[in-house]
Write a structure and sequence with these properties.
heterodimer, A: alpha+beta, two-stranded antiparallel ribbon, 14% strand, B: alpha+beta, globular
Amino acid sequence: MSKQEGLELGMLMDSARRFLAGRREGILRGSCSDSEGAAALWRECAELGWLLTCVPPDADGAGMGTSALAILAEELGRALYPLPVGRAMAVAALLAEIDTAGAQPAWLTDWLAGETPLGVVEGRVVRHACGTPGVRASHAAGEVIFELVETGAAGFGLDPLVAVGRAGAVQSAVRFKCPPSNWQTFEFRSRIALLAEALGAASGALELAVAYACERTQFGRPIGAFQAIKHPLANIRMAIDDARLTLHDACEAVDARRSDGEQRLLMAELLVMEAAQGSVEQAIQTHGAMGFTWECPVHFHFKRVKHLAAILRQTHDSSVILDRLWHMAG
Amino acid sequence: MKFPESHADFRAYVRDWLQGSYAAFRERWGERADPRNLDFRRAWEDTLCAEGWSGLGWPREYGGHELDLARQAIFHEEHALCGAPLGVNLIGHGILGPTLLHFGTEEQKQRFLPGILRNETVWCQGYSEPGSGSDLASLRTRAQQCPDGWRLNGHKIWTSFADRADWCFVLARTDSDASPHKGLSFFLVDMRQPGVRVEPIRQITGEAEFCEVFFEDVHVESSCLVGAPGDGWRIAMAAASFERGTYFLPRLVRFRQELANLRQEIEKRGEEVAAVSLAAWRSRWARLATDSHVLRLKADQALAAAMSGKPPGPEGSTTKLLWSEAHQRLLELAIEVNGVAVLQPAGENPSDGLLQHAWLWTRAETILAGTSEIQRNIVAERILGLPKGG
């Protein structure tokens, strides 16, 4: 990564973090959990240009790499953002790479223009289904297929901020020619977005835990002065930093279309999910009984990470990843 | 010696030289070419220095080559890749030399640097004491001013290679009224003089690299104080940061080599064990391969930070923790995979016992140069901003 790119990514992170800090309270209150709130928030994302982060400048995008997608998705995760910005970035990037001959249906262009929020289909479920259908992407016979899918029995489950429903009947579908390598990049980016979101939610949980450990006093000193508290938090911090390092390495490998891109991404996936789950669990423990209350926001982070972990495990869990890494290294 | 400027050419040049020279050297040593043999390690280090491979980053006016950090890193990496062992004077080359270049007087530089460059003077580091390990600043070795210098009294411990060292750099208390960190000074002490007694400590590996060092009314010339009285802590902390960017490179190469060997062993033994055991071994191996990948990325990051002139931060602690703990997991797995073979006495094969030796050594790695507990305190306090413990 060049120095210039590094600076740009740093600025992107700062501005996103500042902006999202102002949205966090509303998100936690659930003010974006109905279709009206979701529509307002989605419009805002598009106006900020986030959805076109990885789209080339000649197609009105920011022309940035996958690292930018990861940085934004991480910040969105930290703020517990309830909409599928990461996936939309990956879809927009793919549509800009392939020839769609101007045949994109209105539901797809409206979604990416910020006019209507949609959920996204992940295997059997639709995430972010705030009274909306979901977008499903798949690949077969050299074509990418985008489908608009009905959402059944949607509601707020484990994660009180992300509505989930059953993927139902297809309402509309469109196909475009898409070389396998473009599809693979899309799949990688989609996964990176989920991982970065988990990393952000985990990182936010660690910040809460550290702040609490500095403020909460027992036995006459802040509990963060005790090694039984500080060492697990140090472990989490290192695990998060290492996971982020591997995730951004995977982003560069994906952009460079490196042949070992998948291997690098699997390593990142392993470390991100380890770090993220460790972080949210430790964050609740550090908060003591407060961590078990609804009032203390740490449970939102816990639930988001567990939600994302369940989504990611639909295709491969850590045992599968380790097995694939063993074979790939051979 | 003129080295190629471009990094790729430099790497090819180093690799070529090392492959030829080290193979010939090893051949000459025959069965005594064993990384556990300190004479062998010293002799190879002497050869490197005689051929001009020392002072790579030092200024030319002090006999160095002024190589940029990237080329120094390439040398350390290639050196490890060719299988050559680390020397016995790493502390002289990596810590004391740069410390003198930074804090030493002109006289100290002229007097001590040539001996390091030629590997004629072996140095050891006199920091830890029986009562001062992790709490180093509490050390009690004292240096009292006397008419022609200083008189040193005290007891150091865990001093690597003290029995081979010609000189030792010693942290000693010169002001007992000042706060613990401020009353320390940094001395250069001749080990070959009356009053210095060295007693090797037998380690769990059976060998004795660590020593106890006793100073009894040892005379230290005024010119052997580095910096001013009271600067000791600051100099010692800076000294520890000079190897940043390159310290872990040989260790990471070794990690990768051990990982590759372990894979072969798992493949070999896989037919003899239950399928679930094999699956568990493979998983643990893949997790270690991921650690190895992270270590590589962290080394690149540290090198880039050092090259851009960023001051050293607590990131060295994070690399040390990951490397030392992953290395223990790696050797534990290797011992498990090798089964009962590891219990048998060494046979005729010169490499017999090397695995057991490396495995036992990993127990030291989470203790030396700052225990894992101290490293975690550093991460918690300096990165996370958690309060210091009481």
